[in-house]
Design a protein that fits this description.
Layout lengths: L33 E7 L2 E7 L2 H9 L1
Antiparallel strand pairs: 1-2
The chain binds zinc ion.
Length: 61
Amino acid sequence: MVDPTSDLDEDVDESNAPRCAVCDRPLVRDPGHRVVTWIDDGRVETAHFCGASCRESWSES
Ligand SMILES: [Zn+2]
C-alpha cells in the first residue's frame, strides 16, 4: 500500500497521477506500473496500467 503522507520527496499524488486505463486506479509509485505508447494518426498516445493483468485485458479488447 502507498502511504500518501510519506510522499514528500515525490511530485506525484493521486490527484495528478496517471490512472490505469482498465481499472482507473491511480498509479502512485506503483511497482507494477506499465506504460504503453503508440502512434495514432500522427499523435503519440499513451496508456498506463497498474500491472500485467490489466495490460493484457486491455490489449485483448
Ligand atoms: Zn489496472
